[in-house]
Write a structure and sequence with these properties.
Number of strands: 31
Structural class: alpha/beta
Strand order of the largest sheet: 6-7-12-11-8-9-10
Shape: elongated
Distance between the termini: 67 Å
């Protein structure tokens, strides 16, 4: 016994059969002809029959299988078959489900064209966009009405209504030379049509589907002035016939209306089956890099994945650029929400998640791969970097690549220390803000190339100096390429020369002490650092240069020192340095969690400072510089009281030479105690 009986014979029926077999649901698939059987999938969970059945035979089949779910996926014009299936289900007490073609593929039933033969008025409200209809489209209720209309016309006719209706066209004068009849490529069909007088080139035996291009070729080959079709919907090739007629200036004659049944679409039917049989998602998921957005910018593999998908997912801009008629859409970019939606909708078999540019270039592919349980195929696309640089006719192998779209990026540091930098921006004022920062940090001579709406018809590429973009308002999504011929080489070691800093009467950690202290600190490029008691900012500046992808917070209570900090920040291009005026630990309370902290001055608040650092991050790395023995004693007491490990104490004595006449005398600096530790208990 089977769980489902499908009365098929249409594309919709085949799709339902394939879905049932893929999900291992036993089903009986019933079609009316051997040819219909040949078109169905041969699955191990499907039993296929091609005998025509009356109402009684249908009822018997339903009862034999224990009243399974019955799905009616017969043709919209198969009125008698639908009535028989309905009645058989009612008599047997079985559940009945009608699958219909999408309503968007039908002419509106509210159309005001009520006469038997009438040209569609210009203000017709049909669901198929009126502006896409040929100006002389004819709408009739029956084949007889169409023949009556054609009897008063001249010109060749391409008839695509099938062999069953062929005899009605013999009523036309000169039909044997005027009518070109397109039917299925079956021997009995060909014989039947030949007996009616359709022979030679006037009898076209072919199996669809027929593309717009093929329809156009046929209309032009036989110089047809009329094309006769039923309103067969999207899967019946109506749209392709309509577009072909429009292209050739041919009059399209549309016959009849599908049966006005209540039912559901194929996706809705699949959803119903998933709920009924508790199916889980088995969808084939593709992460598709769609390039810049233009259809011409997509790879062939990406275009195929998009075309074959029955569900399109992505941000609104991407979905609207890619989605095709008949595809369901889910506008979302959050990976967890996408994974949950797919889990809750197992009816979809092929899903395309579209991502701008390339899947491996600052896209959401990484998070999606982590979030999705299904097997996923990743399809690369053309990145904004490769596209934009090709448009500029520049190579990019020596370019520093980053993104400021939805993430922090120290562009000032990168531009200051590299000749070529490429970045993504994500706000309409992004270019303006970048230009102002470049000017503030003394980088007004660099050259900017801005790219917006890449690959579209209104693509914009402009170049100029930062001062030219101080009031610029652009697209939220844009790319920027920057050239700085006067870039400064980034130092490979710690130790900026003391004389390079702007100084006053504010104490400064000297370069030898600074070098050892920073070495003990062990910064990473994305570290979040506190410099407590920052002074002139010599340590803060070096921190900012080493942790150029992170952030540095310089805490300083003295106004004069804070002013020097600001001056040094702009001199060295330390855009990731944030100056916090106030006394520690109070000034630190609202700051983000630190990974590293340097304490150059505590104002007697050493324990409170260290406690707050450990509260924020129990594993924080700390380096403390002490000059006075009292500070050393205070720090040692803190190390005993607080949960820290890997404690190391180094005393560093530095002597500098001083010239006295012909002699060089070594003059000792104050000895410095460098104490380092990491949060956490010793194991």
């Amino acid at each position: 016994m089977c769980k489902v009986i499908v009365f098929a014979g249409t594309t919709e029926g085949r799709q339902i059969a394939e879905f049932l077999d893929k999900n291992m649901i036993s089903a009986q698939i019933c079609v009316a002809t051997e040819y219909g059987e040949q078109l169905l999938p041969k699955g191990e969970h499907l039993k296929i029959s091609h005998e025509r059945m009356n109402e009684a035979q249908m009822e018997e089949l339903i009862r034999e299988n224990g009243m399974p779910l019955v799905i009616d996926a017969t043709h919209p014009y198969a009125v008698e078959a639908t009535e028989n299936i309905k009645n058989a289900c009612e008599r047997a007490g079985a559940s009945y489900l009608r699958v219909l073609r999408e309503s968007r593929d039908k002419l509106s039933q509210n159309c005001t064209c009520t006469d038997n033969v009438e040209e569609l008025p210009e203000n017709c409200t049909c669901e198929d966009n009126v502006e896409e209809l040929p100006g002389d489209c004819i709408y009739t209720d029956s084949i007889e009405d169409a023949v009556a209309y054609l009897s008063h016309t001249k010109g060749n006719i391409l008839v695509t209504t099938g062999s069953k209706e062929a005899a009605k066209f013999t009523a036309l004068a000169n039909y044997q030379s005027r009518v070109f009849l397109r039917v299925l490529s079956l021997a009995n069909v060909a014989e039947q049509c030949e007996r009616l007088g359709f022979q030679g080139k006037h009898l076209i035996c072919m199996q669809g589907p027929f593309s717009t291009e093929l329809n156009i070729a046929m209309l032009r080959q036989w110089d047809c002035k009329y094309l006769v079709t039923k309103m067969s919907g999207h899967t019946g090739g109506f749209q392709e016939k309509l577009l072909a007629a429009q292209s050739c200036g041919c009059t399209l004659i549309v016959i009849g209306k599908p049966l006005q049944d209540e039912g559901m679409s194929v996706p809705a039917c699949k959803r119903f089956l998933c709920e009924k049989f508790s199916l889980e998602s088995r969808a084939e998921i593709s992460l598709v890099g769609m390039g810049m957005g233009s259809e011409d910018n997509r790879t062939g593999e990406a275009a195929r994945a998009i075309k074959e998908a029955d569900l399109m997912i992505g941000a609104r801009r991407m979905v609207e650029a890619c989605a095709l008629p008949g595809q369901d859409r889910f506008v979302e970019y959050d990976s967890s929400n996408i994974a949950e939606y797919i889990k809750l909708h197992p009816e979809y078999e092929k899903i395309a998640i579209v991502l701008s540019g390339d899947t491996g270039f600052f896209s959401g592919a990484k998070k999606l791969l982590d979030a999705l349980d299904n097997e996923v195929k990743v399809i690369c696309g053309i990145s904004s970097l490769s596209y934009f640089m090709s448009r500029l006719q520049k190579t990019w192998e020596d370019t520093v690549i980053t993104s400021a779209h939805g993430r922090s990026s120290n562009l000032i540091f990168l531009v200051k220390h590299h000749k070529q930098v490429f970045t993504l921006l994500g706000t309409s004022d992004g270019v303006r803000k970048l230009a102002k920062e470049l000017m503030a940090f003394g980088l007004g001579d660099i050259l900017l190339y801005i790219g917006e709406r890449l690959s579209y018809g209104d693509e914009k590429i402009i170049k100029g100096r930062p001062e030219e973009f101080l009031t610029y308002e652009g697209e939220p999504l844009s790319v920027v390429y920057m050239e700085n011929p006067a870039y400064e080489e980034f130092p490979e070691t710690h130790g900026i020369r003391d004389e390079e800093f702007i100084r006053d009467k504010v104490p400064m950690t000297k370069e030898e002490i600074r070098t050892v202290s920073l070495s003990k600190l062990g910064l990473q490029k994305d570290s979040v650092c506190y410099d407590i008691g920052a002074g002139t900012g010599s340590v803060s500046i070096e921190m900012a240069m080493r942790a150029y992808q992170g952030r540095v917070y310089a805490i300083e209570q003295k106004p004069l020192a804070a002013e020097l900090l600001k001056k040094n920040k702009y001199k060295f291009g330390a855009a990731n340095l944030h100056i916090i005026e106030g006394t520690a630990p109070q000034a630190m309370e609202e700051l983000e969690m630190p990974t590293h902290a340097f304490i150059g001055g505590s104002s007697g608040n050493m324990e409170a400072i260290m406690r707050l650092l450990l509260d924020k991050n129990p594993g924080v790395r700390m380096v403390i510089n002490c000059i006075a023995l009292e500070t050393v004693s205070e720090t040692l007491q803190c190390l005993k009281a607080l949960p820290v490990k890997v404690v190391e104490i180094v005393q560093l004595c530095v002597s500098r030479s001083k010239t006295l006449g012909n002699y060089h005398m070594m003059m000792g600096e104050n000895p410095i105690y460098i104490i380092s530790c990491t949060g956490g208990e010793d194991s």
